[in-house]
Amino acid sequence: MSRKSRAARRIRPWWLIVVFALAAVGVGLWPSQDFTSVRVPVPVPVDGTPVLNVLDSIAKHNPDAHLNLLRAGAVLQGNFKVPRGYYEISPSEPWWRTLRKLKMGYETPRQLMVRGYQGRTAVVQRLGEVFFESAHALDSALYHGDSIVPVLPNTYEIYASLSPREVVQRMAREFDAFWNTDRFEAAQRLGLSRYEVTVLASIVQAESKEPEEWPRIAGVYLTRLKQGKRLEADPTVVYAVLDRGLAEAPIRRVTGSMLRVPHPFNTYRNKGLPPGPLATVHPPVIDSVLASTATGELFFCANPSKPGFHLFSKSYAEHLLNRNRYLRAITR
Prior knowledge:
This protein is mostly helical. 49% of the residues lie in helices and 11% in strands. The chain is built from 14 helices and 10 strands. The longest helix is centred in the N-terminal third of the chain and has 27 residues, at 3-29. The chain is elongated. The termini are far apart.
């Protein structure tokens, strides 16, 4: 055998090793799927779902999916159980990393945006779009009787697998973080708890959309609380009527019969603050309440010459004059 032939035999195994190494690297880096250029949502609402069932669900909703490597890897790993959660598959993510994510329960965070001026139904509906729990379970966790866990408008980064109790705890942590020392001390000066300030702010924001009026409106209600008078706040009547299903939203005008609706939130019938906020409250409204004082003014009504604003008064006689002025303006 010639020297050249023996050298060729010695070289050939090294080429095979290189080829196998490159093939292994290629398989390892091969993406989980190549059927889309965007991240694919993978919701797993039931804890312990077999991974092959999860892949079948992906393929069902994505007919062009090519998941052969994922399926082969899932079979080799014994068709493991996937923890409940929300996952996403990136088009550039290696298949083995996707399987590891599903196996270990490494969820993809979701964005939960809670808007201001959102009532009970809207809040629960929004949560139901993100979490796997039923609307009834979320409603029961957030609302105890007629009270509500304060939910501040914000964009939250959360995990869809959270239980209703954990959702409430997350909302409570955000509420605690908002109430720093300065705000807490301001509430104490008003003689209110932070929860009571939030309830009062929900009434104030329902009364006016004008920030410059918020402290003055809050001052009216603080004066009435201080004097032991009923708040007689129309937004609490609207809440009561809608909650009882006696009318459909929007309610343009509060009638005399509405004022008599029995409900814990109706401040025409009950003294003090309602049991909970009427809706989610924008933080600037809370700060306006904290900056307000009891000015002695007891009444206000819509200003006919300046839409969106109000006329304030310290006596009932003056209030009647303002009210009659408004009624004449709307009946012309």
